[in-house]
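Listing S7. Sequence submitted for prediction.
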Amino acid sequence: MKYPDNILKKEEELLLQTYKRIPIEISHGEGVYLFATDSKKYLDFFSGLAVNALGYGNKKVIQAIEEQIRKYIHLSNYYVNIPQLELAERLIKLTGLAKVFFANSGTEAVEASLKLIRKHFGPDKKIITFSNAFHGRTYGSLSLSGKEKYKKYFSPLLSNIVQLEFNNVEQLKDIIDRTTAAVYLEFVEGEGGIQVASNQFVDKLNELRNKFSFALVADEVQSGIGRTGKPFAYNHYEIEPDLVIVAKAIGGGLPLGALITNKKYENVFQSGDHGSTFGGNPVACAAGLVVLNEVFENGHMNNVARLGEYFKSELNLIHRNHTDKIADIRGLGFILGVELFKPCERLVKAFRDKGILVNCTNDNVLRILPPLISTKEDISIFIKVFNEILSEHA
């Protein structure tokens, strides 16, 4: 059911038109499903753009939020709050790194990392990023991003940022040298079409880092917190980043992001160099603690690793039967992409009409981001509907 006309009109009157709204009026969510006001339910294989790792209405998350709200909703960061310390401790243990700065989003965590890099290395050294990368929409994070359609109206952006072709080993060897301060990498490019870094590419990057001592910054905003079947996407490789950026799933649906540094960079920031009024909000951190416990202690990550392989194998079967429509299947765990020969917006609508929510990115890639609680039965529903759609659409 579409929004009533007056609601759409009111939305246009009141809000800056920065989003292309999906024409469904949501009443509530439960598990892996969203329900519309007309009682139609949708299998949500987009999960709030990888935010809702535990789906909707998780009782443990709700309980943690309610308990923390009764204590205090907000404290200035001039005070210590216990949920923030507990979450930082868990993130440090997961990554093997040293210290955490909390922000409200992935973009804010990227901005924090840029300031840290510039302070440590100075303004003259270059920062490397990659084609189709997406690191956010604020000026610093946008300067790192690789999609020109997001950048074209906003020059001048930050200087000394060099964009290379993702997975191009020769460019790494040609461009990275002693004038390099940092390399920002999504080991799985989400917005860029679920492109996965090759082992050869990562190995060469690690070799060059050992030679030139730049900082490797892993953007795990979309791919972290168990989504790939490992804690972070970089865990699929023989490499340890210097800085890790996380967000989305980490707040259990509340705004939260984090920059995590190793010991080499843990003392770059001093008091007053950076800050955030709401970063590390105690309610968001309390919810995040539940997410980490459920994902890593109660088996959800292992579930993702096992079912992600099943899901990908089923998509590959579909590919073999529709080589005229599908160019490639790629991804890890529960971050999967189906590259089509044609733009995929029409298929997104077809899925929605059949009660499944999925996303289109990079114009022609179906981006599939199920909640980490999804079952084999949920995946089978998706596969059945996908087969139907491909048979119905020429």
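Caption to Listing S7: primary sequence and predicted structure tokens for the chain studied. The chain has 13 helices and 17 strands. The chain has a mean pLDDT of 96.
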